[in-house]
Amino acid sequence: MSLDQKIINSLEHLVTIGVDGEEGYQKAAEMVSDKNLLAQFEQSSTARNIQAEAIRNYLSDNGVEKPAHKGDFGGTLHRAWLDIKGTLSNRSDSVSISSCLSGDQAAVVAYQEVLDEKDLPADLHKLLTEHLEDLKGDVENLEQLSKES
Question: Which of 47, 54, 80, 99 stands the most exposed, by the fewest C-beta atoms within 10 Å?
Answer without folding.
Answer: 80
